[in-house]
Amino acid sequence: MLKFIKGHMETIDGVEVYPMISLLIFFIFFVALFWWVFTAKKDYIKEVSNIPLETEKDSAL
Q: pTM of the entire structure?
């Protein structure tokens, strides 16, 4: 199965650039996520982390 896919991929011109593009996209995404986590306001993180613990009785107050 892999030989079948590899044979077709070798016939595509410029196919070697796609792994580099995907690596760059994932790297940029995780760097941006890492930056957002460390720059997020602590009050916002605390408020969002308590959402699963709220009940309808708590939110009505």
A: 0.57
